[in-house]
């Protein structure tokens, strides 16, 4: 991936990792478009970074995604990078007499169907560019799940698998497919807690990601040091150790 001169669409670009990436890519000399559910926060970010564009899209709505892709294609014909970053995390209880599905279904819609639908709508455009990049954001929890957010972890594991297939099918199609695998990062999605796992400061994480992209333009997985133990847990025969550590029962 080249680091400047791109036109980059980042979903969920008004907060968290998406916001950090939007600022970093904008500062590096790219045209950045951010998208999300609420106009106010998007406009606030864009106003603070002259030249940044924004659009509202509901990632749970297949029709809205299709219309949004058509709008982006019309208004930003040079688009050559899509960052599928939008995601939500919900705590779920599976042990009660009744298990609610609303949170699970919303996470599947946003975290999994949303990226699949948006990539499908924009890939014909991306393939026409001289060089394009599709970046999907998964999670270290795709490899070692945190049991309190089961659907979130499952959607990120699915994104990892889907990205592997995308990369293989698009080999030779002028589209580089990158998986961004964050550790626990201090964002609204996963705020730091005194009794929770340590979180990596957002600005430190973004700096590390940008450094990897600069040093390794052909990278397939962006792995900062902090996430490598989870990503490699199966290969190093440490899955059980990390799973137990992440899911340690509270002491009474």
Determine the oligomeric state from the structure: single chain
Strand content: 5-15%
Fraction of residues in helix = 40-55%
Describe the strand arrangement of the main beta sheet, using strand numbers. 3-2-1-4-5-6-7
CATH class: Alpha Beta
CATH-derived topology: Rossmann fold
List SSEs in N-to-C order: EHEHEHEHEHEHEHH
Class by alpha and beta content: alpha/beta
Task: Give the total of domains.
Answer: 1
- Write the CATH architecture name: 3-Layer(aba) Sandwich
> For the CA atoms, what is the radius of gyration?
18 Å
Low-confidence runs: none
Main beta sheet strand tally, sense and closure: 7 strands, parallel
How many beta-strand segments? 7
CATH superfamily: NAD(P)-binding Rossmann-like Domain
Please characterize this protein's 3D structure.
This protein is of the alpha/beta class and 252 residues long. The protein has one domain: NAD(P)-binding Rossmann-like Domain (Rossmann fold), CATH 3.40.50. Helix content is 43%, strand content 13%. It contains 8 helices and 7 strands; from the N terminus they run βαβαβαβαβαβαβαα. The chain has a 7-stranded parallel sheet with strand order 3-2-1-4-5-6-7, with helices on both faces. β4, α4 and β5 form a beta-alpha-beta unit. It starts with 6 loop residues before the first strand and ends in a 6-residue tail after the last helix.
């Amino acid at each position: 991936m080249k680091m400047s001169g791109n036109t980059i669409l980042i979903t969920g670009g008004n907060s968290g990792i998406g916001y950090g990436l939007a600022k970093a890519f904008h500062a590096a000399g790219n045209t950045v478009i951010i998208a999300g559910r609420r106009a106010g926060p998007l406009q606030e970010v864009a106003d603070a970074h002259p030249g940044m564009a924004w659009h509202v899209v509901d990632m749970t709505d297949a029709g809205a995604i299709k219309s949004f892709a058509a709008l982006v294609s019309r208004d930003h014909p040079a688009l050559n990078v899509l960052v599928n970053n939008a995601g939500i995390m919900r705590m779920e209880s599976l042990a009660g007499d009744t298990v609610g599905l609303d949170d699970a279904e919303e996470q599947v819609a946003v975290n999994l169907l949303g990226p699949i639908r948006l990539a499908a709508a924009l890939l014909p455009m991306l393939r026409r560019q001289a060089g394009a990049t599709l970046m999907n954001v998964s999670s270290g929890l795709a490899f070692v799940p945190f049991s309190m957010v089961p659907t979130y972890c499952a959607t990120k594991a699915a994104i990892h698998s889907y990205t592997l297939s995308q990369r293989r099918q698009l080999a030779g199609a002028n589209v580089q497919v990158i998986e961004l695998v964050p550790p626990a990062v201090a964002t609204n999605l996963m705020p730091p807690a005194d009794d929770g796992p340590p979180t990596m400061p957002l600005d430190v994480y973004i700096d590390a990601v940008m450094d990897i992209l600069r040093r390794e333009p052909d990278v397939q997985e962006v792995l900062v040091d902090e996430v490598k133990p989870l990503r490699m847990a199966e290969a190093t025969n440490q899955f059980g150790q990390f799973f137990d550590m992440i899911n340690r029962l509270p002491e009474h």
